[in-house]
Amino acid sequence: MRCGKCEDDAIIELRQHNIAFCRDHYDEFFRVRVEKAIKNFNLFKNDAKILIAISGGKDSLALWDVLFRLGYETKGVIIDLGIPQYSEQSVELSKKFAEEKSLDLHIIKLEDEFAGNNILKIAREVHRTNCSVCGLVKRYLLNKYAYESGYGVICTGHNLDDEAALLFGNVLGWKLEYMKKQFPKLEKNIDKLVDKAKPLIYLTDREVAVYNLINKIEYIDYECPLSKGANSRKYKHALSTLEEIMSGSKQRFLFDFYRNKSKIFFEEKDEYIDERSCKICGYPTTQDVCNYCRIKEKVLSDNE
Ligand code: FES
Ligand code: ZN
Ligand code: ZN
Q1: pTM score, whole prediction
Q2: Residue 120 belongs to some domain of the structure
Q3: Is 291 a member of any domain?
Q4: Counting ligands in written order, which one lies closest to the CA of residue 281?
Q5: CB within 6 Å of ligand 1 — which residues?
Q6: 80 domain residue, yes or no
Q7: What is the pLDDT, as a whole number, of residue 216?
Q8: Taking residues 86-114, what's their average pLDDT?
Q9: From atom 3 of ligand 1, which residue's Cα is the shortest distance away?
């Protein structure tokens, strides 16, 4: 198979785009897709200070690499959740990546915030699943760090497959409130909440993995051991089965939703109905005390 842009051998075929690329043209294609997402969804300005949520996995490191190569001013931040082996490796690989490129990485240790407790102990203490506590503390700590360090936007490595699977799950359960919030850019317009953006939205899992391969980016190549059996993996599987027999269906499913979203929801505004500040930390919440502070209080008081 030949590259669609030159005479070289192709290293990847992209059925949904009906084209194949050699190494260099694939590398270019990837960067163009990211630039296109930034432009089409107005993710951030050229001179924005960008904070990237790093996990040590393939998506966040590819994202950091590509934004750095495109000339953006970036900093990475990783939350060390204290998951044996997995967290150590994620942090190590992220540090290695940052050092090699002379990029700045900030590490937040969950155990420092929760008097030595890791994510497993915290979840047990507050009777919630690991993933729900993990999602909550990550969102909270990333936002807090971004806000306090003066960043206007947090970028995450969510790609087309992640977002299509998320939408699929939300449609299956008709979770309209979640669907309303699903978009490549989330503008918060609320004091102390920083905007979020997903520049890998036009790229699939496979495309990101190939980008890392050709650019020799080493990442943690297994999923978090606590998320085994997560529904998102089943949704991804279902969508890729469909994609095999109907090429382009996954992409249409997601982007037709984005295109029609305002019609479906009558362009409702951001739905923070009851905007208040947490009595303890001062960050926005819909209750008196935010969920993060509730969890923290419970864990710390049980530790005394
Ligand atoms: Fe959050 Fe595993 S990374 S539970
Ligand atoms: Zn080529
Ligand atoms: Zn709070």
Answers
A1: 0.93
A2: yes
A3: no
A4: 3
A5: 130-131, 134, 224, 226-227
A6: yes
A7: 98
A8: 97
A9: 224
